[in-house]
Amino acid sequence: MQHAGKRKTLLLSGTLTVLLLSTGCSALATAMWVTGAYKNQAEFPIEKEKKVAVVARPMVSLTYRDAHVDTDLARRVRAILARELPKVHLIEQQKVERWLDENSWENYTDVGKALGADYVIGIDIEEFGLYKGQTVYQGTASLFVQAYDCATGNRVYEKRLSHIQYPPNSVVPTSEVLEPDFRREFVTVLSEFAARPFHAWDPNEDVALDARSLKP
């Protein structure tokens, strides 16, 4: 099996080299797109068939209008991982939410163990806001993304995402977008950042964030 894997790697490498020499960099870029080599790889890959629970919790006081941001964020992160990691078993979010509603807990591993998960992805919401001023939106948030091995109780991954801004280089007038719509879009962006450590992703996505916020 090892020899077969090496032959496959050498064949792919040789193919890319021939493409580069014969047709230039555009062909290499195309080949990288086809093979997925252009993507940033997962910082913490999750093994196939593992059971994973996703939980988010606010570490700061959120206003009444943002009270469900943690639930919305966890749902979106789970949806991304379910799409990107089809061979990983993501525990249904309704099951996670029901357990959270019915039980008190302190550690993310408490949730994971109760639900029979191998890993639990925990997202601390350390900062969250929607406004840059009274008449313009610019979302700001800080997240602390973690993964725990439920069998050992150990934290096996952590990453702090500080001062995420959306849009990153502009603002959105409140006269153009309703607050619930902007909040929904911002939480979607946050979920993409929070899910990235666990799957391969396109680095070009960040370049389009400002333009994305201007779409009707």
* Residues in β-strands, percent: 15-25%
**Tally of discrete structural domains:** 2
The overall strand count is 6
What is the CATH-assigned architecture of the largest domain?
Answer: 3-Layer(aba) Sandwich
Task: Label the structural class.
Answer: alpha/beta
CATH superfamily of the largest domain: ABC-type transport auxiliary lipoprotein component
Radius of gyration: 20 Å
**CATH third-tier fold name of the largest domain:** Rossmann fold
Overall average pLDDT:
84
User: pLDDT under 50 segments (min length 5)?
Assistant: 1-25, 27-36
Q: What string gives the helices and strands in order?
A: HHEHEHHEEEEHH
Please tell me about this protein's structure:
By secondary structure, this protein is α/β, with parallel strands linked by helices. It folds into two domains: 38 residues, no CATH class; 173 residues, ABC-type transport auxiliary lipoprotein component (Rossmann fold, 3-Layer(aba) Sandwich), CATH 3.40.50.10610. The chain contains seven helices and six strands, in the order H-H-E-H-E-H-H-E-E-E-E-H-H. The longest helix has 22 residues. The chain starts with a helix and ends with a helix.
Question: What's the short story on this structure?
Answer:
By secondary structure, the protein is of the alpha/beta class. The protein has helices at 2-23, 25-35, 69-84, 93-102, 108-114, 179-195, 209-213, and strands at residues 51-58, 89-90, 119-131, 136-149, 155-166, 172-173. The chain is built from 7 helices and 6 strands.
